[in-house]
Amino acid sequence: MSRIFASFVRHPSGRIGLVIVSLYIVAAIMGTFGLTPHNPLAMVPIDRLKAPNEAYWFGTDILGRDTFSRLMVGIRQSMIIAFASVACATIAGTIIGLFSAWLGGIWDGVLMRFMDVLLAFPAILLALLIIAIVGPGTITSIAAIGIVYTPIFARVVRGPALSLKQRDFVDAARTFGSTQPYILTRHLLLNLVAPLAVQVTLALAWALLTEAGLSFLGLGTQPPTPSLGLMLAESRNLMPQAPWLMIFPALTIMLGILGFNLAGDALRDILDPRTQRREA
Amino acid sequence: MTKLLSVRDLRVGFGNDSKANEVVKGVSFDLASGETLAIVGESGSGKSVTALSINRLVDFGGGRITGGSIVLTRADGTAFDVTGSKEAALRQIRGRDVGMIFQEPMTSLNPVHTIGDQIAEAVRLNSGLRSDAARKAALDVLDRVRIPDAKSRMDYYPHQLSGGMRQRVMIAMALVASPRLLIADEPTTALDVTVQAQILALLAELRAETGMAMIFITHDIGLVAGIADRIMVMQHGVVVEQDETSNVLDNPQHEYTQHLLRAVPHFASGNAVRTDGERVPAREPVVKVDDLVVRFPVGGGWLKPKGAIHAVDGVSFDLVAGETLAIVGESGSGKSTTARAILGLVDKQRGDIAATTGRSKRPIQMVFQDPFASLNPRLDVEALMAEPAIANGQKHDKALRERMAFLLDKVGLPEDALKRYPHQFSGGQRQRLCIARALMLNPDVVVLDEAVSALDVSVQAKVLDLLIDLQHEFRLAYLFISHDMAVVERIAHRVAVMYAGQIVEIGDAKAVLASPQHSYTKRLIAAVPAIERRKQHFAVDVTQVPSLVRPAGYEPPDARWREAGSDHRVRHEDTP
């Protein structure tokens, strides 16, 4: 574990990704405990649409709320949804992929074709469909984004699981009479940790974007809770007068995605056995 | 004899700083036309790089010749400087003067073209012949490499041919240009022992027919006795010994050559079999296999298999405690499938496998060929060793840890190995680990599926000794699957020879190895390479393994056996 962290710090773009992701996590935690410069929900009519200044670092919106504080809480909201949905997708996708590979035959066919159907829809469209059926809200967003990314995890797990299943150590385990749950967890899942870790990091970036998209369309987080997508949507009509209302949330989204992507790429390099061998 | 090739102080390096990363450090040799030079060495000794420098193919692998000279005498008598020539000039040399064949014939052939087209293309490029004439020339050359029924094989794709056939096709392609020097880079390493003998015989005959010189690269010094005029032994990029074949083999000067010769497993035609453990027929067998049949359905469409591969077809044998039965045969003979069926890893169609359940719930355990693949890389040794016990309801407690430590000690591994991971062990140590793990459940029978084949020769000997010691101590019965006759001779009490899914000969090891009765056993034993076989040419034998794919519902005729001795049974050969 410490070795992976050390390689992260050594990896040039991994270092940048790590800094960004840490920054966002700190911001999210501070947002949770109210450690923001201003109350993100407090409306100060006299300070409406202030440009960035010493008191309001990123300016204020049309209701006089501090953009910086709202961004911190927005990051928290986005992170909660991203982490929760990716967790759902990881668990569901891993189980589906693992069973699909292990059982094979008709199970494999049915499960993976169903995953293909889900994958055929554009992510945001599928999430829209689910929310349209259930109704908007934080929990619905988590479920919708989770379902959208499940097929990707199912695929990432199924491929290596199929080849692991053929390996001698799985055959050896069968000759001892090891139970299926034991083989599935110790021999298959344990060897899938590396590809899964990479996929989780990358999926967090996509989930962040999808969440922002849903909120922008008014189907994710509901006002008055601040959210990155929602702030973008509110800024649309005020763009000429208050460009900071759009620039800062957009930059926040972009930087977040960049951070997770860089971290994911670095993780892939670090966990790749070929690069490991080169270091050894 | 005229001088064909002269290599002086050749140095080859790799990478950006090729002077610093030298792989070949000053190699010199001469080759006369019609002469065969064998370059022998372990992997990393620079033997292949030396050979690839002769036609400068090494350039394409990132290598640079950093010093020395290679001078080739061309057919018209002019000297050609290989080291200083441009790519365009080198292309004139490749094929026409220097032909080459590689280790893996499958990857050297293009899978989407028929072999006839591929050879005809070589003909077109070399002699400018067109369509029909080129095909006819291709057919001629296929005949020359003794491919049976060459006319119909012209339209085969590479995957439809066996490994030995593919290597013949590669040789045919090299022969198209009538090279004066043929470089063969481990041409038989990927092949079975009888096929290896066929290819060696073919190369020897072709050399006699065409008068070409040959450079034969191999890691197996036992192989070269029959084919080479001179031997050059390489280690770490330098030549440690170079002389006439008989001088090197009988009177090796360098200690590395001596080490190589000692390490080669020695097959003594049944004169070195084990003398312990007389078979007592009255004793109850620990495992009895009766009429085992394994078939894999192939072809056909929906719900309607057209036929089946008869991988194992009516195999019967038994094993008593403390005895080793070796199953020998080539790849595809069904020996591994037999082992896997006994362990329940493949489904059998028919047959009984009765094992006594005396001291263990799981009386049969297995050790696999590849010690790198049979241990989960993410688990430490303690978890790996505990798995069989936990799978059978034991607790991971002090008693279990004591048993692990006891068995690790028995196989010669330190106790602190428990906290380490598989990648921290060498191949031999890992195989010891696998053996210890197989013994965790105190089995009666251990199936060893090519268990020492992946190990270096010197490690192999130690693991065999260990297996014999463990057999005495725990009264284990071994089912030892192997293609290596020298190894079988060391460990087996009894030998069963498998051919095309059936046992063709079974009995006492000495009887089977010393006086083989079945024609296949005879061929198998005759093909074992040995240092003693100087210049003793094998007859070119084109016998093919029959196809194992049978129509649905096919049953082989009942086996008829004859007794060749007190414990030696031979299957009657069907006259077609």
UniProtKB/TrEMBL annotation, chain A:
It comes from the Bacteria. The chain crosses the membrane at residues 16-35, 79-102, 114-133, 139-157, 188-209, 244-264. Signal peptide: none annotated. SUPFAM superfamilies: MetI-like (SSF161098). It is a multi-pass membrane protein. Keywords: Cell membrane, Membrane, Peptide transport, Protein transport, Transmembrane, Transmembrane helix, Transport. Belongs to the binding-protein-dependent transport system permease family. This is Peptide/nickel transport system permease protein.
UniProtKB/TrEMBL annotation, chain B:
It comes from the Bacteria. Residues 557-576 have a biased composition (Basic and acidic residues). Residues 556-576 are annotated as: Disordered. Keywords: ATP-binding, Cell membrane, Membrane, Nucleotide-binding, Transport. GO terms for molecular function: ATP binding; ATP hydrolysis activity. It is a peripheral membrane protein. Its main location: membrane. It holds the Pfam family oligo_HPY. One of its GO terms (biological process) is transmembrane transport. One of its GO terms (cellular component) is plasma membrane. It is found in: Cell inner membrane. Residues 7-261, 287-525 form the ABC transporter domain. PANTHER family: DIPEPTIDE TRANSPORT ATP-BINDING PROTEIN DPPD, OLIGOPEPTIDE TRANSPORT ATP-BINDING PROTEIN APPD. Belongs to the ABC transporter superfamily. NCBIfam families: PRK10419.1 (NF007739), PRK11308.1 (NF008453). This is Glutathione transport system ATP-binding protein. It comes from Pelagibacterium luteolum.
